[in-house]
Amino acid sequence: MPPGRFSRRGGPGQPGGLFEAPDAVVPTMICDATDAMQGTLKASVVVKNNGAEAMPAGTLVHLELDKDGMVTPLLDLMTSKELLPGQIEILAVDIVLPPDAPEIPYLLRAIVDSDMQVNECVADNNANETICFVPQ
C-alpha cells in the first residue's frame, strides 16, 4: 500500500488496497406512519454494499427518529446475509414507538454499521433519512 493510505480505523488499509473493501450504504427507505397514533410505524430499509468486497451478515443497522434535532433511538436491526458487491437486503420492520416519541411528521434515520465493526472503504456514507407521514 502506498505511504499515507489508511483505513477508517487509522491503520494500514485493506490488503488488496484501500478501496478493496465493503461499503455499507442505505440508498433508500420508506416510513409509513399510518398507525403512529396507535404507537407503531412501519419501515423498510434498503441496505446495499457499494464496495468491492463482501459485507458480512450481522451488520448492524440503527434506527432513530429526529424531530427538530431531538433524537429518539428506536431499535437496532442486523442484516441476515452476506452482501456481495452491488447486492441489497431489504429490512422490513414494524416499530413500537417509545412513549416519548415525537408527534409526526419527523425524520426516520437509518445508520448501517453504526457500531463501526465493518472495515469499509468509505465510512461517511452510512446514513440516510426519510420523512415519516400518514399516507393519504
- Rg over alpha carbons: 17 Å
Strand sequence of the main sheet, in spatial order?
A: 4-3-6-7
- Series of H and E elements: EEEEEEE
What about the largest sheet?
4 strands, antiparallel
Task: Write down the overall mean pLDDT.
Answer: 87
Number of strands: 7
- Percent of residues in helices: under 10%
Ranges where pLDDT stays below 50 over 5 or more residues in a row are 1-15
Helix and strand composition category: mainly beta
Tally of DSSP helical segments: 0
Question: What characteristic shape results from the CA principal axes?
Answer: elongated
- Report the span from N to C terminus: 54 Å
DSSP strand content: 35-45%
Present the secondary structure layout.
Layout: E1 24-32, E2 40-49, E3 60-67, E4 70-78, E5 88-96, E6 106-112, E7 127-132
Antiparallel strand pairs: 1-2, 2-5, 3-4, 3-6, 6-7
Task: Name some characteristics of this structure.
elongated, three-stranded antiparallel sheet, four-stranded antiparallel sheet, mainly beta, 136 residues
Q: Could you provide a short overview of the structure?
A:
It contains no helices and 7 strands. With 136 residues, the protein is mostly beta strands. The strands form 2 sheets. Strands 4-3-6-7 form a 4-stranded antiparallel β-sheet, with no helix packed on it.
Describe the structure.
There is one protein chain. The protein has 136 residues and is mostly beta strands. Helices cover 0% and strands 43% of the residues. It is built from no helices and 7 strands. Strands 4-3-6-7 form a 4-stranded antiparallel β-sheet, with no helix packed on it. A 3-stranded antiparallel β-sheet has the order 1-2-5, with no helix packed on it. A hairpin with a 2-residue loop joins strand 3 and strand 4 (70-78). It is elongated and about 45 Å long. The protein starts with 23 loop residues before the first strand and ends with a strand.
